[in-house]
Prior knowledge:
About 30% of the residues lie in helices and about 35% in strands. By secondary structure, it is α+β, with helices and mostly antiparallel strands. The protein has 2 domains: about 1-30; about 35-185, START domain (Alpha-D-Glucose-1,6-Bisphosphate, Chain A, domain 4). The chain starts with a helix and ends in an 11-residue tail after the last helix.
Amino acid sequence: xxxxxxxWTGFVAGAASAxxxxxxxxxxxxxxxxxxxxxxxxxxxxxxxxxxxxxQDPQRLVGMLPELQAVQVNGNRQLWKVxxxxxxxxxxxxxxxxxxxxxxxxxxxxxxxxxxxxNIAPVGDQTEVHLILNYVPRLWMTPSGxxxxxxxxxxxxxxxxLARAIEDGLLHFKHALEDRGFERDAAxxxxxxxxxx
Length: 197
């Protein structure tokens, strides 16, 4: 009985020590796993139905937006590959919200962890596009474009860099839509390349 009591006392002490060590290791990392939000808006000189039609067919954007390398669409699932600075980042997401002519929302299922929504609204004879991106900074980019499997393998992505990339993307989207040859050129643009997330 005495050996059994010593065993359980030692076991509980060991488990408590291991738990304390795990908490000491995890606690500082949890603070860095917070979700960040970026919101950006732009006005585009096109009707909302034209803007929404292009948003619903993102493969047409390949070739229009220099940072967009490829898009594959399979129902509500989409696979995107973009260039952020010198890195290529790929992810797969599900379109989880569609309000025709008003908004599209998505949630990542593979690659960098994020959710997003694009709202559109008429402003006179133009359209306001408002993008909201919620993301976990430490999981947003690795050299392979995959979410890191090892805690020390993170490549930090600065909020300002991602915000600037979103602004640039919205400006390129605006210019692509407002280009007078948009309707003619859209039919000639290349489709999506094969990509993986």
